[in-house]
Amino acid sequence: MSFKLTYATMFNPPAEMHARFDEALREVELALGARHRLHLNGEDVAGVEEDERRSPIDQRRVLGHFAVASANQARQAVEAAHAAFPAWRATPWPERVRLLKRVAALIEERVYLIAAALTLEVGKNRMEALGEVQETADFFRLYAEEFEEKNGFDIPLPDDPLEGWTSHNRSVLRPHGAWVVIAPFNFPFALAGGPVAAALVTGNTVVFKSASETPWAGRLLADCLRDAGFPRGVFHFLNGSGNEVGQALVHHPRTAGITFTGSFDVGMRIYRSLANGPWPRPCITEMGGKNACIVTANADLERAATGIVRSAFGMGGQKCSALSRLYVDEAVADALVQKLKEKMAAIPLGDPRRQEHWLGPVTTRRAYDNFARCVAAITRDGGRVLVGGERLAEGELAHGFYVQPTLAEAPPTHPLFREEMFLPILMLHRVQDLGQAVQLANDSPLGLTAGCYGSDADLAYFWENIEAGVTYANRPQGATTGAWPGYQPFGGWKGSGSTGKAIASFYYLAQYQREQSRTVVE
Question: Catalytic: 283?
Fold first, then answer.
């Protein structure tokens, strides 16, 4: 791909990119309805049953029939990963790095085909889908290169100051064992591929469970790892419910560590479970956000409105980083609301397979139904809808999960200021000053992303006081969204993450390893 694609550069792609995506989409659609298997202990195998998945774009369109694993197959996968661990741990790290780079190359070779499948399965527009697939390739390459740069995390230390003896010291990071990765439905390729890559390059074996809503993306990732040539038993792919397959993975005594991306409630249950065994096991959780943006009286309102709309409504608000709460200085609130109304009215909404449509459907029927509940709650609990608020069920949208991007104003105590809706609904409240805005922004158990539009003095106060792991200032590309491997580490504070260390940061790979201090006396 000659065009460097990131979430910050996807707004003016070359015509060639659209042509190649359209060609890939035609190829993928010709193969819809196929059967897709699990990948267990080096083999593609059937599950105990099949799940027919349909597209959120049009529920009449069958995507495929996907094998569903049993709890017993989940246990078999962990046992096989545990058995494969000693040989994989002993594999020279340059070979592990080589295999990761091979996966990155395969993903890039298939970027358009995989992105077309993501558009059909998740309902993303083509640029969001292409961005996710390229991001995944970048995760594999970035983690491989970092492991090379750190020399496999084997670091010589000073000798002990002993007279008459030579005592050599070193710090070595070592893998844990069979590592479980549980991915979400909204970024089913990238938020699976990133932790899978990190666990594998550090010497762990992996059992990966896709979200049950998006097994196709998981299977396509498994294809890339299978075709890269990983040894038997090092990587496994499962599809199944959290209640059965997920629980079997979490509670297996051979599970050495887990990376989970999803809701706070489920993440905390997993975290507590891994802490309550015979010894605590590592658990890396990314548990969502209730992300706030602050617009001060000194803000560039045109820039703010552009970033707010992109961040709140991109991919239907189905991002853990999506903007959900907007606190605006009352002196500029009316002017900003007018700009938001104009930009929201201009959002091209429809079938995301088509180049001209920026916003497609929400991914699941549950989200579609939840939208109606949330809109009803806006007015019931003292708010008012300023823009949107309707589900769209006419014409070519009648068979999909389409909803209007919605802006609502409400008092700060409104329940929707605390609920992570995962919908294109933005709650607005007017504030007296920046101090009040920051106080309200921090009044949340979550602390993933946050944004601010204002003067240099405003930004200095914002950064000193905001409680969030990823922050953006005066950014038209997205008020609270748009991190990319190698450019912005991505991880939350408080209830948004269990470690305080970010994805694609300097500290991420170390979380998949444990330190061993080695001293030898000659």
Answer: no
